[in-house]
């Protein structure tokens, strides 16, 4: 499929320079940019964060976050033992 698009000369100059530096075609850089734009505008079937965890309403220290998440996983999987790595 062919689609025509117009780009700023400054952007094209940056692409040309990057292609030379990375030893790839300008078209490949443009394809990568189109892919990033497509993914940024995609509507996903499921939310990115489907699980939530209850908390105290304040920023927790790293150790408390680790322990809280580990406990939630243990409850969900029914595992009473296990170690956090």
Q: What is the topology?
A:
Layout: H1 9-22, H2 26-40, H3 62-77
Helix pairs in contact: 1-2
Description:
The protein has 85 residues and is an all-alpha fold. The chain has helices spanning 9-22, 26-40, 62-77. Helix 1 packs across helix 2. 0% of the residues are buried. The mean pLDDT is 86.
The coarse overall form would be elongated
Estimate the mean pLDDT confidence.
86
Number of helices: 3
Low-confidence stretches: none
Structural class by sheet pairing and helices: mainly alpha
Query: How much strand content do the residues show?
Result: under 5%
Total number of beta strands: 0
Q: What is the straight-line distance between the termini?
A: 48 Å
Reported for the largest beta sheet, the result is: none
Compact summary:
This protein has 85 residues and is mainly α. Helix content is 53%, strand content 0%. It has helices spanning 9-22, 26-40, 62-77.
């Amino acid at each position: 499929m062919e689609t025509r698009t117009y780009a700023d000369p400054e952007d094209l100059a940056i692409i040309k320079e990057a292609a030379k530096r990375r030893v790839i075609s300008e078209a490949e850089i443009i394809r990568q940019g189109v892919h990033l734009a497509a993914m940024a505008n995609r509507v996903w079937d499921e939310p990115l964060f489907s699980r939530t965890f209850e908390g105290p309403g304040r920023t927790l220290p790293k150790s408390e976050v680790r322990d809280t998440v580990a406990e939630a996983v243990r409850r969900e999987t029914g595992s009473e033992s296990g170690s956090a790595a």
